[in-house]
Design goal:
The structure holds 2 protein chains of 2 kinds. By secondary structure, chain A is an alpha/beta fold. Chain A has 4 helices and 3 strands, in the order H-E-H-E-H-E-H. In chain A, helix 1 packs parallel to helix 2. The longest helix of chain A has 19 residues. The model of chain A has no long low-confidence stretch (mean pLDDT about 90). The chains are: A alpha/beta, B mainly alpha.
Chain lengths: ~110, ~550
């Protein structure tokens, strides 16, 4: 298992391209500016268009509950907010998500 | 004695504000000033901070979100409509595009008929902390340092009362810095800039340039330590100005600082408790007369939830007004002079900071040590989070006393402000109109002058001001800087090496091994401080409350 983190200020297009190239099992996004709705919407469409519709996408940020529900409805697998301060839990979630992907593929 | 002593003047009372459009932000500013706010603090949106026009692909979804979009002179004009700039003290949280936003500000002030030499305010203009934590850099460190110095050189000769650089330790604490790291990294940043400026001004004028360097700090919940940190800052800066730069007038060695109190420690759980945190943190930077802030901005109680509404910001500003105008704080001399407990802590902090400063100096100073400082911050933040998870650090409502009654403050709007998605489209339409209405030849000429100045190493401020007046846009200005100086990607702090600083990871590592076997990939577990720490902590405040 490896992590590739390209840093800040990437377009949804760049992130999806990286996910294709790296054959990502899980994609994690961090958005703290409140722009999560339009950007994640765009991201999810591009993921499906690139054939990555079954790759789990997780999102972390300053995300109000209503928005979190909207993100989940868009197909996001997990939403993390400042409430989720236990990083081991988040990491365990990611491992599980990566695993379920492999099980599904088999 | 307190009966005869005249009370000190209160610090500048500001609120970090801006959203949606220049017109909406102008209304907010005028409203805040009417409520007794004494200075302005402009929050720009991320595209403006990173040098993109509102219609750029990277601006999508971000226009007007964490601040106001300013694409051109027309936006700046609307932002300060009916606010006389010659009577205002304006702080602009702007860094990579600081030369440009200051140029627009100067151009608007001239239009208003203001005497430019009398303008007062601050541009943040500290790129080093952008690489380390905040993220809105554009160019690599060397040309960025040159542009910081361009602003300082211009201000010193044209706007002598303007603070051309606000060295920020604020964002270092938001990224997890210890008090010693905050002290050392900020002071090293200040000396890097002054070392760059020194050969550019006549020797006799240099102390006046030193005097204009100001600071922007953070104040966390461990408020006694934070108060001692501010006293340590005052002493260390005095020492550096005297020994490193030979400034003989003690007035010119004064540590002048503004503050926004901590946002990292504000909790999403039981958010009303944040009001107490903010109050306590404000005490750290106001109680000591000898180390008191010149300007204070407070976050709002609900900033871990989203953007604060005007009422939320008003509630915070009232806290400042009560301390400044209702209490007797400003009638007293320094309350802590000669206090042995305070003195001991101040000395200990100074000692720690001096050791780290010597270390940075030996590595060639702040610019050469960016990767090193980044890795230290990432470690400190991991330690901080570990302490919360282990319950070594109590956070009320988060890891202790988590049971709560439903909050009546959480109203139907979710207790936050949302920016109308239509704002972006409207801003883009206005921008297109602006572009169409300009004198294209004048714009092309102004950009050619700017390009030439950047290429020849001349000060970019004069051609930037001319470009502002010609109607050049933020994206066009920044594109010239990108072409001339290149773009930079800062260190992420994410490392593939296995961390030995983390705890309770054995089980997790085993499951990673197992999953990796099933997926048929090599096993590599990055340290949690690198892999997971940063994305969730990076600039929570930057993008909301923090300047």
């Amino acid at each position: 298992m490896d992590i590739s983190y390209d840093g800040i200020r990437l377009t949804p297009e760049e992130i999806v391209t990286a996910a294709v190239e790296d054959k990502a099992h899980v994609v994690g996004l961090s958005i703290l500016s409140g722009s999560h709705i339009p950007l994640v919407e765009d991201m999810m469409e591009r993921m499906r268009a690139a054939g990555l519709g079954n790759v789990p996408v997780i999102v972390g940020g300053i995300i109000p509950d209503d928005d979190a529900r909207r993100l989940l409805a868009m197909g996001v697998t997990r939403v993390y907010t400042p409430k989720d301060f236990e990083l081991n839990t988040i990491m365990a979630d990611i491992v599980t998500l990566a695993d379920s992907k492999s099980v599904a593929a088999e | 004695m307190t009966e005869t002593r005249k009370a000190d003047k209160p610090w500048l009372i500001r609120t970090y504000a801006g959203h949606s459009t220049a017109a909406a932000s102008n209304a907010l500013y005028r409203n805040n000033l009417a409520k007794g706010q004494t200075g302005l603090s402009v929050a720009f949106d991320l595209p403006t901070q990173t040098g993109y026009d509102s219609d750029h692909v990277l601006a999508r979804g971000e226009v007007g979100k964490v601040g106001v979009p300013v694409c051109h002179l027309g936006d700046m004009r609307a932002l300060f409509d009916q606010i006389p700039l010659d009577q205002m003290n304006t702080s602009m949280t702007i860094n990579a595009t600081a030369p440009w936003l200051l140029s627009l500000y100067v151009a608007v002030a001239e239009e208003q008929g203001a005497d430019i030499s009398k303008l007062q305010g601050t541009v943040q203009n500290d790129l080093i902390k952008e690489y380390l934590s905040r993220g809105t850099y554009i160019c690599p460190p060397k040309p960025s340092l040159k542009m910081i110095a361009d602003v300082a050189e211009y201000c010193y000769s044209h706007i002598p009362k303007w603070n051309p650089m606000n060295v920020c330790s604020y964002h270092l604490q938001e990224a997890g810095a210890t008090p010693e790291q905050e002290l050392a990294f900020a002071l090293a940043t200040a000396t890097a800039v002054l070392d760059e400026l020194r050969p550019r001004v006549p020797e006799a004028d240099f102390p006046a340039v030193v005097q204009r360097i100001s600071f922007f700090v953070n104040a966390g919940i461990r408020f006694v330590t934070e108060m001692c940190k501010m006293r340590a800052f005052v002493d260390l800066w005095d020492e550096i100005c005297e020994t490193r730069y030979g400034v003989t007038d003690p007035k010119q060695r004064r540590f002048r600082y503004g503050v926004q109190v901590n946002s990292l420690g504000l909790t999403e759980q039981q958010p009303e408790n944040n009001v107490y945190r903010i109050l306590i943190e404000m005490l750290a930077v106001t109680l000591s007369k000898n180390a008191r802030a010149r300007a204070v901005q407070l976050p709002a109680w609900n900033e871990a939830l989203g953007l604060p509404r005007p009422w939320d910001q008003q509630w915070s500003m009232r806290m400042q007004q009560i301390l400044a105008y209702e209490t007797d704080l400003l009638e007293f001399d320094d309350l802590f002079d000669g206090n042995p407990a305070v003195d001991r802590k101040v000395e200990a902090l100074k000692e720690g900071a001096r050791a780290e400063l010597a270390n940075l100096d030996s590595m060639g100073g702040a610019v050469a040590s960016i990767e090193y400082m980044k890795s230290r911050l990432v470690e400190s933040n991991a330690d901080r989070l570990n302490r919360i998870e282990r319950n070594d650090t109590t956070v009320v409502g988060v890891n202790r006393w988590t049971e709560t009654e439903p909050s009546p403050l959480m109203t139907e709007d979710g207790g936050i402000m949302t920016v109308d998605p239509a704002v972006e489209k409207d801003q883009i339409n206005q921008l297109a109109k602006w572009r169409d209405s300009r004198d294209a030849a004048a714009v092309a000429a102004a950009l050619a002058d700017l390009r030439a100045a950047a290429r020849d190493g001349a000060n970019i401020m004069p051609p930037s001001i001319a470009a502002a007046k010609a109607g050049v846009t933020t994206g066009e200005w920044a594109a010239e800087m990108r072409k001339a100086f290149g773009e930079y990607r800062g260190p992420t702090g994410v490392s593939p090496s296995v961390s030995n600083r983390t705890e309770n990871l054995d089980e997790l590592r085993q499951s990673v091994d197992a999953v990796s076997d099933r997926l048929g990939l090599a096993v590599e577990i990055p340290g949690r401080q690198t892999g997971a720490g940063r994305p969730f902590q990076w600039c929570r405040a930057d993008r909301l409350s923090c300047p």
